[in-house]
Amino acid sequence: MAGFHALNTAMFELALAYKEKGMAGYSELQEREFALQKQGFRAVKHQSFVGTGYFDEIQNIVTNGSAATVAMRDSTETAQFH
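Structure for Isocitrate lyase, as requested:
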């Protein structure tokens, strides 16, 4: 129940911030995420957090390295967090 309320409150606040400030509202959310990394927050790197690299590797194994649809190669996350 707490997760439901936390998720919906956060999304509502993000929608309001985006309505009032545009991308700056979203940027403020990201700044809070970056600050939380010191306390163990890992979802900033969202693709890695959900296991995208693992599934890319499986796809490359199955296709013998010829997969054209892997997500992490040339992703903004890979470029941003090297």
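The chain is about 65% helix and 0% strand.
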